[in-house]
Amino acid sequence: MKNKKYIVDTTLRDGEQSAGIAFDEKDKVKLAKLMDEIGIYQIEAGIPAIGNVEKRALLKIMENRKNALISAWNRMNVEDIKHSIECSPDIIHISAPVSYVQIYSKLRKNKQWLRNSLMECVYYALDKGYKVTVGFEDASRADISFIVSLGVMLKEMGVSHIRYADTVGVLTPHNIADVTRTIIRLTEMDVEIHGHNDFGMAVANSLEAAKNGAKYIDCTFLGIGERAGNCDFIKFIKSSDSILDCGISKKEALEVQKEVYSLLKS
Questions:
Q1: Are 264 and 231 in contact (CB under 8 A)?
Q2: Options 1.10.3300.10, 3.20.20.70, 1.25.40.10, 3.30.70.1270; which CATH number does 3-265 get?
Q3: For residue 202, which of 163, 211, 223, 231 is within the disulfide window of CB 3.0 to 4.6 Å?
Q4: Rounded mean pLDDT of 65-86?
Q5: Burial of 75 per CB tally in 10 Å (0-12, 13-18, 19+)
Q6: CA-CA-CA-CA torsion sign (243, 210, 196, 80)
Q7: pLDDT in the model for residue 90
Q8: Contacts with 106 (C-beta within 8 Å, 6 or more apart), sequence order
Q9: Are 244 and 212 contacting, i.e. CB atoms less than 8 angstroms apart?
Q10: Residue 120 in contact with residue 94, Cβ under 8 Å?
Q11: Is the pLDDT of residue 256 over 90?
């Protein structure tokens, strides 16, 4: 029996961070409707803090959806979360920078600040009645013991699951297999894998993470995303078809990909 896995499509959020790509409100609503129709489990629909255009698109997506869960992406900032709450998504996703490069060099903060800020944001969203997921940004360059300690804390708080992001695309299948097993074993939480393709390993890394227990797999159509892109949706479901059940028809997914391609060319 194939293991059941769940696709989180982030074409409308991370995919849109590709250089030269911008979906307008109409495009986002149309693509989300198509994704919903083919059985994608969760659609990461955007970043409400960007502004009113993003909010209108997300509200319309929420109005039209039938089955997919809709999530809104947020920085680790209560004000961002307030913007998302205006759109009433199913899931509030909070991104937390966890590598020392991000915490100490980029933000000039420390681990205790990170922990306190994350707790504040999670408690705020949970208190408003939302399902919350947390993404560990730049996790592949972070201390695994720090990630595990945060995971244990988040589980106790009631966070749904955690996202492990290879933000700079440096992992290999061997690395991600070991990391995935370790996090699941020590935190007892479900893991979502978010791969980037800087060294051409996003699909392979995502597949290996899924084989080693990751329950949720982030993808984008055509593999679009910042820098070299993300895990390619079609390539992932094709390569995983013999061992994983993602609940997606390849034929229907290809039709959505054609629509994405058409919008990018127009």
A1: no
A2: 3.20.20.70
A3: 231
A4: 98
A5: middle
A6: positive
A7: 98
A8: 97
A9: no
A10: no
A11: yes
- Segment (H or E) for 216: strand 216-219
* Cβ–Cβ < 8 Å for 44, 6: no
Tokens of 193: 């894998």
SS (H, E, C) 82-113: HHHHCCCCCEEEEEEECCHHHHHHHCCCCHHH
Backbone angles phi, psi at 100, to 5 degrees: -65, -30
Q: Looking at this protein, which amino acid is placed at residue 79?
A: E
Domain boundaries, the chain: 3-265
Give the percent of the chain with pLDDT over 70.
100
Q: Look at strands 3-4 and 6-9 and give their pairing.
A: unpaired
What value does the mean pLDDT take over residues 201-220?
Answer: 98
Tell me how crowded residue 101 is: count the other CB atoms within 10 A of its CB: 14
